[in-house]
Amino acid sequence: MITLGIETSCDETSVALVQGGRKILSNIVYSSLLEHRPYGGVIPEIASRSHLETVLPCLQEALKKANRTMGDIDLVAVTQGPGLLGSLLVGITAAKTLSLALGKPLVGVDHVMAHLYSGFLMEQKLAFPLLGLVVSGGHTMLVSMESARRYQVLGTTLDDAAGEAFDKVAKILGLGYPGGPEIDRLAKGQDAKRFFFTRPYLSHESLDFSFSGIKTAVFYTVQRNFSQTNAGLPGAGNKKMTLKDKKAIAAGFQEAVCEVLVKKSLKAAKIHAAKTLVVGGGVSANSRLKQLFSTASKKEGVRVIFPSLALSQDNAAMIAALGTALYREGRRDSLDMEAYPEFIKS
Ligand code: KG4
Ligand code: ZN
Fold first, then answer.
1. What spacing in Å lies between the alpha carbon of 112 and ligand 2's midpoint?
2. What class, spelled out in words, does domain 2-118+311-328 have in CATH?
3. How remote is the CA of residue 346 from the centroid of ligand 2, in Å?
4. Which of 30, 166, 342 to mutate to test the pocket of ligand 1 (most atoms within 8 A of CB)?
5. CA–CA dist 346, 154 (Å, integer)
6. What rounded mean pLDDT belongs to the chain?
7. Residue 281 CA: which ligand 1 atom is closest?
8. Of all atoms in ligand 1, which is nearest to the CA of residue 314?
9. Protein fold of 127-306
10. What DSSP assignment string belongs to 105-119?
11. Domains 2-118+311-328 and 127-306 share a fold
C-alpha cells in the first residue's frame, strides 16, 4: 500500500510517499523559514502563500523521487491539525482534491501524534504498546500508546512548550530564530553549572510540564548580571554580556529543560511499565537531550528511539505513517473534513 502524505501545518510544505506505513519512498520538504526569519517568528499569511506556491511542485518532486505516478497512490493522508488555519487549509484542500480525482480514501492526521510515528520509520519492527514523548515548538506531551487510535495523554505542558522556551530564551540572548538549534550549538562543551536554573515542575507528582518560569528566570539572570538585556532594557549589572556568558546561560538553561524531560519520561515509563519510548518533534534533534536519555535510559532498562534529524523536523513521511496506521484501524474521512487549529485530546 502506498500512502501519499501531505503536511502544511506551519512553515514547512512537505509531500511524501510511504510504502506499508514504514518505508519512505520519498519525503520532500520545502521550508519558508528564511522568509519568516526577519520577523523572529512564523507569519501566518507568508506561510499560507508559500504552501500554495510549493505544494504542487513538492508533489511532483515526491512522485519523481519515488519513481511512481499518481496511479500508484492507494491512500491520501493529510495533517488536519493542530497548526495555522490558513496553512492547514492549503494541505487539506490539496488532499481532498487528490482523493476525489484519484478515487482513493482520505485520512486526516493529528500533527502532534504524527511526530511519534517517525519512530515507525526509524525501526521497521517497532510495535505497540509504546510510550511517546513529543517535544515540539507548540507541544510537550507524554502519551501512552496502545494503537494508532487508542492512546492516552499522560502529561502535557501547562504553559510554554519545550521548543517555545528554547525560542524565547534564544531571543533574550539575542540569538536567531529558531532558537533551539542555536542554543544547542552554543551550549556544546560549556559549563552548565555556572548559571543554575531550578528544574521546573520536576518534583511535582504529576506528569505535566511547565517551562514558562525558566524563561523568566533566564530573563532576570541576564538583567541582574549584565548591563543591558537584549530587549534593550537596562540591567542591574555593570558588565556587558559576552559570547562566553551567552554560551554558559544557554548551557544552564538547556541542562534544566533536558533533565526535566528525561526524568519525567522515565518516571512515566516506570509508572506505566513501558519498555520502549519514542521521542519526536523538533526538540528531539537536541544533542544534550539525546546524551542524557542515552545514559539514564540504560540504567532504567528503557529503550529510547530518536528520529533522524530529517524526521525530527516537520515532514510528510510521518503524516503518511500515522495515516496508514489509522486507515488500517478503520479510520476514513469525508470531503467535509475540517481543519482544527488546536490539539484535540482523544
Ligand atoms: O516539531 P517542530 O518542527 O514544529 C512544531 O510542530 O512545533 O519543532 C520546532 C521547534 C522549535 O521551537 C525549534 O527551536 C526546536 O523545535 N528545535 C530545537 C532543536 N532543533 C529544533 N530545540 C532544541 N534543540 C535543537 N537542536
Ligand atoms: Zn511539528
1. 6
2. alpha beta
3. 18
4. 166
5. 11
6. 95
7. 1
8. 3
9. Nucleotidyltransferase; domain 5 (3.30.420)
10. -EEEEEHHHHHHTHH
11. yes
Residue 336 in grid coordinates: 467535509
Ligand nearest to the CA of 253: 1
| pLDDT tens-digit readout, 3-46 | 999 999 999 999 999 999 999 999 999 999 899 988 888 899 99
Please give all residues whose beta carbon lies within 6 A of any atom in ligand 1, as ranges.
Answer: 10, 136-138, 163, 166-167, 178-181, 184, 281-283, 285-286, 313-314
Give the mean model confidence (pLDDT) for residues 128-153.
97
Average pLDDT (144-162) is: 96
C-alpha distances (whole Å) from 25 to each of 31, 128, 163, 307 are 20, 24, 29, 17
List the shell of residues around ion ligand 2, using CB closer than 5 Å: 136, 314
**What ligand has the least distance to the C-alpha of 168?**
1
Domain ranges of the chain: 2-118+311-328, 127-306
Handedness of CA 44, 105, 74, 313 (dihedral sign): positive
Length of the chain as a residue count: 346
Which ligand gives the minimal distance to the CA of 307? Answer: 1
The label of the residue with cell 521521542 reads 279
Inform me whether the pLDDT recorded for 66 exceeds 70.
yes
pLDDT grade, residue 233 (50/70/90)? low
Q: Which atom of ligand 1 is nearest to the CA of 12?
A: 3
